[in-house]
Amino acid sequence: MLVTVNEYQRAWNKVRKQSLSHSTYSVLLFVSCLDVDAFVSSIMLGSLLQKHLILYKTEPVIGYSSLRESFSRLESSIKNVFLIGCGSSIDLEEYLGLDESNADLNIHVFDCKRPWNLNNLFGSQLVICYEDCDIKQFDRYREAYDFLANDATTDNDSNNSDDTRFQGSQSQKSQEIESTQSDRDPATSRRKRHKSERQTYTEVLEAYYDQGSHLLSTNAIQVYTFLAMIGETSLRMLWLAVVGLTSIEGQYPHLYNLLIPTLQDEMRRLNHANNSDASSTIQDQKIKLKFNFNTEPDYSLFLLRQWCLYESMVHSSYINAKLFLWREDGRKKLHKLLARIGITLQDAKESWTHMKPTLKRALKSKLDSVSEIYGIEGITRQGVIRHFGLAGVMSAGDCVESVAAVLETGKAEPLLRDYDGQESERGTSDEEYEREYKELTETWVKNFWIAWDAWDDFESMKRGVEKAKALQSAVVTTANYIFDKNLPKDLQTFRMVVVQDAPDIQVFWNPLSLQRLANWVFEGCAELNSTNLPMVFAVLNEHKHTYLVYGIGGRKPRDSQQTESLSDFNKFGSQFQETAARINARIRIDAFDSAIIELSREDLPRFLEALDTERS
Per the record, where are the segments of Polar residues compositional bias (predicted)? Predict the structure, then answer.
């Protein structure tokens, strides 16, 4: 069921009515475990439920199999299930096994990944899909869906249909031929028109599903819009929405640039309302101090306020891509840039906290003065900065990096091996493989709760920042190795990077870390090559004899004037599955992002060859 912005209040009223009569928890939040955007969105929804004294439970899930397993244990008291950061792309009624016994259960979906599975939108009364974008785009798809659904029902009754992607083949029955010419001609005309309409509508839905995965918003913005429509906005919720949006900036910079002005306007509105409220209580004043954030000059640099200028430049994907810092001449160019703006290496390596105030104040104008010369026009921008009282300052990007690092590593040291480093001669048995995977998912769930406890405490976030520094250093080292060895190779339809042996390779056996490294290399390749190719990035896990594979849809460099276009669409998810099925490759697809798969080591060469053929 499609629920639009104007219907949010009614949906919330129903949840409240169903929940307040229960003495035990009646709401369950399933949250995508390795997703910063989903993480902050779950905090927002949880805070709303808590404020209204609705008992609820949050359960982080790794992928669709763990979602189904957890759902199978659903308690009878649960009346409303929220899926945050997952659920949009599969037929939830079929996958979760919903039937008449679940008639009083509602599945609420806050998932910004598109395309929707249209069975969720138009074919289910149990699944409630929240959509904050223009719904007119769905008019044609609803028309096509309804026609084919009704056509399938009619054909089941008459047993007279052609094969379509929405129904199995049916036996064809002969038509009566003993009729008058006047009776036959209208019937023939109707059948031809009906067949033509069916073909047209089938093509409409095929084109919809084949467009590839993409984002039109973020989970946090969807949830914040929901809160705004029911009158529950606050500075705390707005900060979380900003962090959620900032988490996609590296992968979807143009979407970030499109959406951030809306949140900045909301910041000004809420700050003005709070500052002019003379009746605010002491508690309100404490909240204002705790969530004191605003739009300030910021930079496309890594953890600048938590590090030093030089290290934040060296560890910035933007500066690395623009200046080619993996090359010796690129590093020399960085030193010349600093000299040109009058900052010595000694000053640049001074921690930001202790850097000369005059240099900090002049940094934006200095960088702007040389940005065109060095092709770094996007290095300065307006960002969102939060002041944690006397404790310190963090940008929204700093918070994203801290939370992401904790989700990846928990309390462990980021670069410590979690195995003895010995490679098995015969690989891992299926039973051992499943055991190790279960242990890994349990670790990620523990990390989720560590991040949950840390996100609003400055000292805990600082510990996350230190982990983020270690992880980013591993990214820089490994990315430099990849470019030094010329590992990116262009095939006919995509760019391929296969990493079999590299420094700190075990760090990238985690999907979050893999995406971090892959997007870094992708951004460098986009600047290095004029050809805008998508990328397939694979990292070998010698312990398990598998590759973790990530497909990135093609996109232009961050500074290009590109808005939404086909290069923002990622078709690898469906193509991975089709290719694996065609060549009978052993894969595991369990992430909510279908463009991340685990593939057996021996299958990778023929998988890549078949994938290239499939796309050409």
Answer: 166-180
